[in-house]
Design goal:
Elements lengths: L12 E6 L6 H16 L2 E2 L2 E2 L1 E7 L3 E7 L7 H18 L8 E6 L2 E6 H9 L8 E3 L6 H7 L1 E3 L10
Antiparallel strand pairs: 1-5, 2-3, 4-5, 6-7, 8-9
Protein backbone atom coordinates (compact mmCIF):
# COMPACT_ATOMS: atom_id res chain seq x y z
CA UNK A 1 0.00 0.00 0.00
CA UNK A 2 1.42 3.34 -1.07
CA UNK A 3 1.65 5.93 1.70
CA UNK A 4 3.19 9.38 1.77
CA UNK A 5 6.90 9.00 2.62
CA UNK A 6 6.65 12.02 4.93
CA UNK A 7 4.21 10.23 7.27
CA UNK A 8 6.18 6.99 7.62
CA UNK A 9 7.35 6.41 11.21
CA UNK A 10 10.99 7.16 11.99
CA UNK A 11 11.53 3.44 12.65
CA UNK A 12 10.60 2.61 9.04
CA UNK A 13 13.28 0.79 7.11
CA UNK A 14 14.90 2.60 4.17
CA UNK A 15 16.82 1.57 1.11
CA UNK A 16 18.69 4.23 -0.83
CA UNK A 17 19.57 3.80 -4.48
CA UNK A 18 21.90 6.38 -6.00
CA UNK A 19 21.95 6.97 -9.72
CA UNK A 20 25.20 7.41 -11.59
CA UNK A 21 23.79 10.51 -13.26
CA UNK A 22 21.11 13.13 -12.71
CA UNK A 23 17.64 12.09 -13.79
CA UNK A 24 15.67 14.29 -16.14
CA UNK A 25 12.35 15.76 -15.06
CA UNK A 26 10.59 13.36 -17.45
CA UNK A 27 12.47 10.37 -16.00
CA UNK A 28 11.60 11.48 -12.45
CA UNK A 29 7.94 11.73 -13.41
CA UNK A 30 7.97 8.31 -15.13
CA UNK A 31 9.91 6.64 -12.29
CA UNK A 32 7.48 8.18 -9.79
CA UNK A 33 4.53 6.59 -11.61
CA UNK A 34 6.32 3.23 -11.69
CA UNK A 35 7.14 3.51 -7.96
CA UNK A 36 3.50 4.35 -7.20
CA UNK A 37 2.37 1.16 -8.94
CA UNK A 38 5.10 -1.02 -7.48
CA UNK A 39 4.60 0.09 -3.88
CA UNK A 40 0.81 0.00 -4.16
CA UNK A 41 1.09 -3.70 -5.08
CA UNK A 42 4.09 -4.59 -2.87
CA UNK A 43 3.32 -7.51 -0.56
CA UNK A 44 5.00 -9.95 1.80
CA UNK A 45 3.36 -13.38 1.83
CA UNK A 46 0.16 -11.83 0.53
CA UNK A 47 0.03 -9.05 3.13
CA UNK A 48 0.18 -5.43 1.98
CA UNK A 49 3.37 -3.58 2.76
CA UNK A 50 2.99 0.08 3.74
CA UNK A 51 5.70 1.88 1.83
CA UNK A 52 6.54 5.23 0.36
CA UNK A 53 9.36 6.90 -1.49
CA UNK A 54 11.01 10.14 -2.37
CA UNK A 55 13.40 11.09 -5.13
CA UNK A 56 16.07 13.48 -3.84
CA UNK A 57 18.39 15.75 -5.79
CA UNK A 58 17.32 14.15 -9.08
CA UNK A 59 19.68 11.32 -8.19
CA UNK A 60 18.53 9.26 -5.18
CA UNK A 61 15.53 6.95 -4.90
CA UNK A 62 14.71 6.48 -1.23
CA UNK A 63 12.32 3.62 -0.55
CA UNK A 64 10.73 3.45 2.91
CA UNK A 65 8.79 0.63 4.55
CA UNK A 66 6.73 0.79 7.75
CA UNK A 67 7.71 -2.55 9.23
CA UNK A 68 5.42 -2.13 12.24
CA UNK A 69 2.48 -2.90 9.92
CA UNK A 70 4.07 -5.76 7.98
CA UNK A 71 7.77 -6.54 7.72
CA UNK A 72 9.76 -7.16 4.60
CA UNK A 73 10.57 -10.75 3.71
CA UNK A 74 13.24 -12.17 1.45
CA UNK A 75 10.74 -12.39 -1.39
CA UNK A 76 9.48 -8.83 -0.95
CA UNK A 77 13.04 -7.49 -0.82
CA UNK A 78 13.87 -9.52 -3.95
CA UNK A 79 10.82 -7.98 -5.64
CA UNK A 80 12.06 -4.47 -4.83
CA UNK A 81 15.56 -5.26 -6.13
CA UNK A 82 14.06 -6.71 -9.33
CA UNK A 83 12.01 -3.53 -9.68
CA UNK A 84 15.15 -1.39 -9.29
CA UNK A 85 16.96 -3.56 -11.86
CA UNK A 86 14.12 -2.93 -14.31
CA UNK A 87 14.51 0.82 -13.74
CA UNK A 88 18.23 0.46 -14.48
CA UNK A 89 17.50 -1.22 -17.81
CA UNK A 90 14.66 1.10 -18.81
CA UNK A 91 16.54 4.33 -18.08
CA UNK A 92 20.10 3.14 -18.72
CA UNK A 93 21.23 4.10 -15.22
CA UNK A 94 23.17 2.40 -12.47
CA UNK A 95 21.33 2.26 -9.13
CA UNK A 96 22.80 -0.80 -7.41
CA UNK A 97 26.57 -0.30 -7.57
CA UNK A 98 27.63 0.30 -3.95
CA UNK A 99 31.26 0.91 -4.92
CA UNK A 100 30.58 4.54 -5.82
CA UNK A 101 30.40 7.67 -3.71
CA UNK A 102 28.14 10.69 -4.04
CA UNK A 103 29.05 13.98 -2.42
CA UNK A 104 28.24 17.67 -2.70
CA UNK A 105 30.32 20.18 -4.56
CA UNK A 106 28.40 23.33 -3.73
CA UNK A 107 24.86 22.63 -4.96
CA UNK A 108 26.09 20.04 -7.46
CA UNK A 109 26.02 16.33 -6.61
CA UNK A 110 29.20 14.58 -7.73
CA UNK A 111 29.41 10.82 -8.28
CA UNK A 112 32.76 9.03 -8.30
CA UNK A 113 33.99 5.46 -8.13
CA UNK A 114 35.24 4.65 -4.63
CA UNK A 115 38.87 4.34 -5.80
CA UNK A 116 38.71 7.81 -7.33
CA UNK A 117 37.16 9.23 -4.15
CA UNK A 118 40.01 7.67 -2.12
CA UNK A 119 42.54 9.32 -4.45
CA UNK A 120 40.74 12.66 -4.15
CA UNK A 121 40.91 12.36 -0.34
CA UNK A 122 44.62 11.60 -0.52
CA UNK A 123 45.13 14.59 -2.82
CA UNK A 124 42.96 16.71 -0.48
CA UNK A 125 40.43 17.44 -3.22
CA UNK A 126 37.79 16.40 -0.66
CA UNK A 127 38.03 17.01 3.07
CA UNK A 128 36.42 16.06 6.35
CA UNK A 129 34.00 18.94 5.72
CA UNK A 130 32.85 17.62 2.32
CA UNK A 131 29.17 16.70 2.51
CA UNK A 132 28.74 13.03 1.60
CA UNK A 133 25.72 10.77 1.32
CA UNK A 134 25.79 7.83 3.70
CA UNK A 135 23.56 5.38 1.86
CA UNK A 136 24.10 2.79 4.62
CA UNK A 137 21.49 4.34 6.92
CA UNK A 138 18.83 1.79 7.80
CA UNK A 139 15.77 3.72 8.95
CA UNK A 140 14.07 7.07 8.48
CA UNK A 141 15.47 8.53 11.73
CA UNK A 142 19.03 7.75 10.54
CA UNK A 143 18.16 9.00 7.07
CA UNK A 144 17.06 12.36 8.47
CA UNK A 145 20.07 12.72 10.79
CA UNK A 146 22.96 10.82 9.20
CA UNK A 147 22.42 10.54 5.45
CA UNK A 148 23.73 13.92 4.34
CA UNK A 149 26.70 14.62 6.62
CA UNK A 150 30.29 15.86 6.63
CA UNK A 151 32.67 13.08 5.59
CA UNK A 152 34.18 13.18 9.10
CA UNK A 153 30.85 11.87 10.47
CA UNK A 154 30.45 9.03 7.99
CA UNK A 155 32.15 5.80 6.95
CA UNK A 156 33.91 7.98 4.34
CA UNK A 157 36.10 9.28 7.19
CA UNK A 158 38.43 6.29 6.83
CA UNK A 159 39.77 7.76 3.58
CA UNK A 160 40.59 11.21 4.98
Amino acid sequence: MLVDFKILPETSRVWIYQANRSLTEKEIEDIGHKLDLFIDNWTAHGADLHGGYEIKYKRFIVLGLNQSVNGATGCSIDASVNFIQQLEKTYNIDLLDKMNVSYKQGEFIAYKPLMEFKKMAKDRAVSKHTIVFNNLVSNIAEYKENWEVPASESWHNRFL
